[in-house]
Amino acid sequence: MQLEKATKRSKPETKRGYEDACGTAHALELIGERWAPLVLRELMFGPRRFSGLKADLPGISANVLIQRLTELEERGLVRRIKLPPPASVQVYEATDWGLEAAPLLRALGKWAVRSPRHDVAQFVSPVSIMMSMQTMFDPAKADGFAARLAFRFGERSYVAEVADRDIEVRQAPAEGADVVFDASPQQLAGFLYGGAPIETVAFTGDKATAQRFAGFFELPPKAF
């Protein structure tokens, strides 16, 4: 079976760094190049095929995606694995160290949405909207709430479990959820953050649960 497009192992990197011992400087050397943080973001909930990454990063070219995956692999943040039969395809997944960047990406996103230049109408990937729930969740508003909500995006589904004023988000089947959303990431963004009525998103399950869930999220105020 022919494998999907794969990164090629290259010679050790020779790109010039900041020559600065600060950890922040080295962090930028690791994931500071254009597209690198978003490629890593897309791997936060599990392995992905090259074609899936390309589809959820619509502004990136195939060549640049290959380059970024190769660099992230060389830096120990991403690895390639082959799924067992019957899939038998090559996928990319974040290493344990790569997954440790998740809180950094969420914090960076929460800081950046305060910019007046942030455009909420732009493209949102399924992973991005699910990570935003972890980022913007307000525990104080979830007192006494316990539910399992699922979000289906084509063949992929994610689950958000809320209990004890905490939220856990992961890629998982939708079966057994109290509410199942079948809406696009953009529609969900409008419902969760833009004040769009519940009628704008397709879902099954308890309406009151879905509406209260939407009240747990709010974008921070603009910086100026």
What attributes characterize this protein structure?
Nonspecific Lipid-transfer Protein, Chain A, 9 helices, 17% strand, five-stranded mixed β-sheet, two-stranded antiparallel ribbon, alpha+beta, single chain, Arc Repressor Mutant, subunit A, 2 domains, 224 residues
Explain what the structure shows.
Residues 22-120 form the HTH hxlR-type domain. It is a single chain. By secondary structure, this protein is an alpha+beta fold. It has 2 domains: 23-113, Winged helix-like DNA-binding domain superfamily/Winged helix DNA-binding domain (Arc Repressor Mutant, subunit A, Orthogonal Bundle), CATH 1.10.10; 126-215, Nonspecific Lipid-transfer Protein, Chain A, CATH 3.30.1050.10. It contains 9 helices and 7 strands, in the order ααααββαααββββαβα. The longest helix is centred in the first third of the chain and has 13 residues, at 62-74. The radius of gyration is 19 Å and the shape is globular. 25% of the residues are buried. The model has no long low-confidence stretch (mean pLDDT 94).
Fold blueprint:
Blueprint: H1 23-31, H2 36-41, H3 50-56, H4 62-74, E1 78-82, E2 90-94, H5 96-99, H6 102-112, H7 126-136, E3 147-153, E4 156-163, E5 166-171, E6 179-181, H8 185-193, E7 203-205, H9 207-214
Helix pairs in contact: 6-7
